[in-house]
Amino acid sequence: RNFFTKRTKELKPAVQSAPGWKLFGKVPPRENLPKDSKIIQQEYEARTGRMYKPPPPSGRRKNIEFEPLSTTALILEDRPANLPAKSVEEALRHRQEYDEMVAEAKKREIKEAHKRKKIMRERFKQEENIASAMVIWVNEILPNWEGMRATRRVRELWWQGLPPSVRGKVWSLAVGNELNITPELYEIFLSRAKERWKSFSETSSENDIEVASVADREASLELIKLDISRTFPSLYIFQKGGPYHDLLHSVLGAYTCYRPDVGYVQGMSFIAAVLILNLEEADAFIAFANLLNKPCQLAFFRVDHSMMLKYFAAFEVFFEENLPKLFLHFKSYSLTPDIYLIDWIFTLYSKSLPLDLACRVWDVFCRDGEEFLFRTGLGILRLYEDILLQMDFIHIAQFLTKLPEDITSEKLFSCIAAIQMQNSNKKWAQVFASLMKDNKEGDKNHSPALKS
Questions:
Q1: What is the mean pLDDT of residues 189-203?
Q2: How far apart are CA 93 and CA 83, in angstroms?
Q3: How far is the CA of 450 from the CAs of 272, 435, 437, 447, in angstroms?
Q4: Cellular component per GO (predicted)?
Q5: Judging by DSSP bridges, how do beta strands 21-22 and 25-26 pair with one another?
Q6: Confidence (pLDDT) at 440
Q7: Angle formed by the axes of helices 338-346 and 370-383, nearest 10°
Q8: Which of 155, 204, 354, 363 is deepest in the core (most CB within 10 A)?
Q9: Most confidently modeled range among 5-9, 54-58, 111-115, 199-203
Q10: SS3 call for 423
Q11: What is the mean pLDDT of residues 131-147?
């Protein structure tokens, strides 16, 4: 109760006792009050005998029609009193320069406003096209899928990009289900993956996980945990605690147990993530398993070197046909397709391109198959041909590994459309088949039985 003693003295007026403060105590109260700036000026004039002349009123306009946000208007200000005044010619010149700067700023602002309006008009037009296309897909195409999927009208509509609301459904139908996987089968392999995760020793370090035995492909279940956080990191939805983290984990784990001969390979997480964004969990798994069962994906994910070399050789045939200058430029630096194509094919461009553009590539890939993956690669090279011709080996490899983020679907697809997938009247499938045939004949000629 008596912790604090009562003050016996009355407080002095706040103005008189307002002390300054220093770090560890009070300084004595200031005797003199702060002076007004006018009083200080008068004392200075009395002490020095100089009279202060206020600057003449500025001739600057008060109401300027356009007031720049920067310091542009400072050019109209008069000089300080201690400097020589502007001459008439200089004042007129400054006025002219200011007017020019204001006019340029106005012009720039009008140009940006027109650009914004153009973007908005294109966006509205795109939304209208998507809405009208969605009606056609839902009411006409999907109910009669088998009869209409190969028609010219549907193929042209498909090329323009699928409406997001029907994209997953069309992908599922186009990829098919040759493996006859059911949602019940997915649950079985998911439960097996969960058992493996539980049984895996918690004391295992991440280094042990990275060097997991290749023979035991199911051991790659632990690699999934390391890779999920690297999947579309800018979206934050697949990172730990995100809404799709566990879902992606489940689909990849179930596939690893479903195909232990393939296991988990880096790049799969991007493919599974794109499917999860467009399909329900079980449907995403079914599409994922069937997609990776296609010859091209199976060759790359099982690291079948001989098959991969055939795909690279077929790609170079059409590369030389469509872009001869760039082809010779790459040849001069011994820059082979595997340096940039592997990453593109492994992730089906979902890692290399913006997500919305990658989904449009997927649209046509589901329509045309593996040929379109390599056609897209040639389209990218065509789009940046002029830039790549000026680069050396290191810069080309770096550029193609991390493509510019401002790449647009209109520019890319116009370049893809310009690529001719025909060489000496042979299409992609015929060129690839002939390469496979040559390979088999070469194997026969080099076989030990024939040599003996």
A1: 78
A2: 19
A3: 46, 21, 18, 6
A4: cytoplasmic vesicle; vacuole
A5: antiparallel
A6: 65
A7: 130
A8: 363
A9: 111-115
A10: strand
A11: 92
Runs of H (alpha helix) within 263-348: 268-278, 281-291, 295-301, 305-322, 324-332, 338-346
Q: Identify whether the C-beta of residue 244 lies closer than 8 Å to the C-beta of residue 237.
A: yes
Q: What is the DSSP string of 58-101?
A: P---SS-SS--SSSGGGGGSPPPTTSPPPPHHHHHHHHHHHHHH
Eight-state DSSP code of residue 360: H
Q: State the sign of the Cα–Cα–Cα–Cα dihedral 191, 196, 197, 199.
A: positive
Give me the sign of the Cα torsion angle 388, 394, 397, 401. negative
User: What is the rounded distance in angstroms from the CA atom of residue 110 to the CA atom of residue 153?
Assistant: 41
Cβ–Cβ under 8 Å, residues 133 and 157: yes
- Which of 216, 238, 218 lies closest to 227 in space, CA to CA? 238
Position 409: which residue type? S
Distance CA 394, CA 333 (A): 10
pLDDT of residue 223: 77
Spatial distance between the Cα atoms of 362 and 369, rounded to a whole number of angstroms = 9
Retrieve residue 385's tokens.
């041909």
- Token pair of 88, please? 């008439």
Distance CA 221, CA 230 (A): 16
Output the six-digit token pair for 430. Answer: 């015929």
pLDDT bucket at 267, cuts 50 / 70 / 90: confident
Rounded-to-integer distance, Cα 423 and Cα 313, Å: 13
Element (H, E) at 116: helix 88-136
Buried b (16+ CB within 10 A) or exposed e, 242-265: bebbebbbbbbbbbbbbbeebbbb
User: Which helix H or strand E contains 254, and what residues bound it?
Assistant: helix 245-258
Put simply, whether the predicted model's pTM sits higher than 0.85 gets the answer no
Q: Which of 16-20, 41-45, 217-221, 358-362 has the highest mean pLDDT?
A: 358-362
C-beta separation of 165 from 264 below 8 A: no
Provide the terminal-to-terminal Cα distance of the chain, rounded to the nearest Å. 113
The pLDDT of residue 81 is 77
- Report percent pLDDT > 70 for the chain: 75
pLDDT at 53 over 60: no
Query: pLDDT by residue (tens digit) across 243-256?
Result: 999 999 999 999 99
Tokens read off for 318: 């059409």
Tokens linked to 66: 């356009």
